[in-house]
Amino acid sequence: MLKNLLKKNFRDFRSHASEFSSVFILSLLSILIFSGLLAASQGMEEKFEKWSESSNMADEWVTIRDQQENKVLQELKDKKSIDQVMQQQYLNVKVGTASSKKQLQLVIDNGTISKPAIIKGDKFSTQTKGIWLDSNFAKENDYKVDSNIQLNVNGETKSYLIKGLVASPNFIAYTGPANDIVADHEKYGYVLTNTKTIPSLKNASNQILVTKNEEYSEFDLKEDLKDVLGTSLIDISNRNEKNNVSEFIQKKNSVKKLSIMFCTVLFALVILTTETTIRRLVNKQRSIIGLLRALGLSKFKIILHYVQYGFLPTLFGGTIGLFFGPRTIAPLILDKQKPLFNMPYWEVTPSKWSWVMLGVLVLIGSIAGITAILKTLKDAPAKIMQPQKIKRTPKNIVEMFPRLWDSLSWDWRWVLRDISRAKLRALIGIFGVIGSLMLLISGLGIQQSLNDSNEKTFGSDQSYKNEIKISPTIDKSIMDLMDSELNGDYQTIQQLPANLSTSRKDLMSLITIVEPGIYMNFNSTDYESVNLEKEDGVFISDYISKQLNVRKGDSIKLIGNFSEQNLIVPIAGILKVGSPQGIVMSKDYWGELEQLYVPTTVLTGQKVSKKISDDEDVVQVNSLAQNLESANKVLTSFQSIIILLIVFAVLLSWFILYNLGALNFTERYREYATLRVLGFRLNEIRSIIIKDSIATWIMGTIIGIPLGLLFLDSYVALANSTTTQFFMHISSLRIGTAILIVLFNVILISLFISRQVKKMDMATALKSVE
């Protein structure tokens, strides 16, 4: 008997190939995407953790006011919450002469915390004269180990021997001294050395690196640091707060969240499709099940037989997806991340959660078969073999309006009554349309949202032609030259790193001070234009305000090297701005706080002459178009994911809707055969099938559009960081495209399925159980 059941399995798989292949492909695609994205995220996480452990990466980076003698180092070492502590001095130096445009961040430390990975050359040592150069900068500028490099340190140019090429865990996401959008390794990098090489910096420090005792909390550690350092403390940043490290962590987490969010919808649709397929197949074979029971076959063997319909397609499809996901999608994702981060190690690492999700998918597929067959097996064999009673069709909403009901054609009445009679069947179809729309809207909308946010930042909020970044110590004669050559057509801003502190949380961010002009424009979260000069207070970007949990009317503390005293200022409003993030205020209000305005950037609508751009006090000149291009370059790491989402959303939409359409036809097979016997033409039956699908599409679209927009908004938020915020935006054209793709699939599937009406065996379809 088991051999015969196995033959029946193969016959069923063959006769219902379209339905089972849909379950197979949906299982394959869902696990393929999930395992691929998760393997990329897991690889990034594991290599980061491995490097942080081998390098003894700092748990906290403590920025302090410049000290010539570190009198507090021993006191910090005595604190029980602190495991290790190391002081260091960092400053920006120029490569070559003072007029050079190439800059390195020079770090003096003893190499005990956040030890660099040696890419080539000697191990870092505090007892050896020489420097250890950023490997990316060395590669772009053709520097080799044992060659020399000229550095201008505090106005003095000297030649230093390169002892090694390194990658430092403190500079994973470093983009340059001016916090450029993307790293330019040809112009910017970092260099590590010791006081034996540069004795003039001995005992000086402006940063302390700390590792935490595992027995104590981060709160205990920060309290001890605040207690010891007092007013010399500027900021304490952990790995999730320090920009050079947190950007990598945020990107890794974003990829993981993308996989979870996308696949949550996907798995729900796969489960829906699988459960529906098995349940309808079992219902269709009630007479066969009754016959098997009448022949004495045990319930266990029948259950085992029908479990395979959910077990095998999900197992084979999911296993293939699990095999190819980490080998195809994950490498594609990592290749897009490599140019953005200074990580020495990259590797795809399959996640155990992919196996768990495969197990869950197979388990649910199996349970779908078990629950469907158990419900049928509760009855006696004779009752199972009898046709199911047709339920009385209740009145639908439209029938409550007689004139409207009378105006409808007979086929629309049939469709509406059928929906009213089989609400669960209609609901499943609606869910299929909703899920398809959510995937399509998110896939088509996220790309536009990210690109439009960048275009708004570099085109609307910032409308200059050229951006000139200058040294804070720029000579007055150069500023006079700019004023003359730019015909007074410019606007200056000053940007300063600062710790933004509230009673609940601290966050390292940026203060932007803006003088009156036309090239920086700000809008509130109410979409109203903001005039900084008219407000007595500061403005805070929307994303940072949510991170600090502050709102208009609250006060915030500003801590930084710009003032020996902490500045407590009121928040005058919240800005809806992509970049810059942090605090924004007018030049006049900065003056009211008794602070010196020292511009760091000049924005102009004029062409910048070579005389200005070549000056040693001009750090760099970028056009608005270049900044937009750089911002879009960051998004390339998301583009591969976005393309995958769009492609898979279209494919999934087709398979989900096809499966549901095929199952609906199978379930209504007897009804369609009855209509044929009663003399209805093929076109009339096809009309019912198409209109039934359109009714499902209309109801699914009404619910699916708002849900799709909410899902898209959550998707876009994953790309936000402490430096940039993105806003959801999708055009009516793209929403219309998503709707039309689903409609096209619905109609095409309906036409394809309706062709089977010709092949109906009416005698068999209407034959009752003897």
From TrEMBL:
Q: How does the record classify its membrane topology?
A: Multi-pass membrane protein
Query: What's any one GO cellular component for it?
Result: plasma membrane
* InterPro entries named among the record's database cross-references: ABC3_permease_C (IPR003838), Membrane_comp_ABC_pdt (IPR038766)
Q: Where in the cell is it found?
A: Cell membrane
Source superkingdom? Bacteria
Segments traversing the membrane: 258-282, 303-324, 353-374, 426-446, 641-660, 694-712, 732-753
Record-annotated ABC3 transporter permease C-terminal domain positions: 261-379, 644-761
**UniProt name for this protein:** ABC3 transporter permease C-terminal domain-containing protein
Q: What is the lineage of its organism?
A: Bacteria, Bacillati, Bacillota, Bacilli, Bacillales
The principal location of this protein is: membrane
What's one Pfam family the UniProt record gives for this protein? FtsX
* UniProt keyword list: Cell membrane, Membrane, Transmembrane, Transmembrane helix
Q: In the record, which residues are listed under signal peptide?
A: none
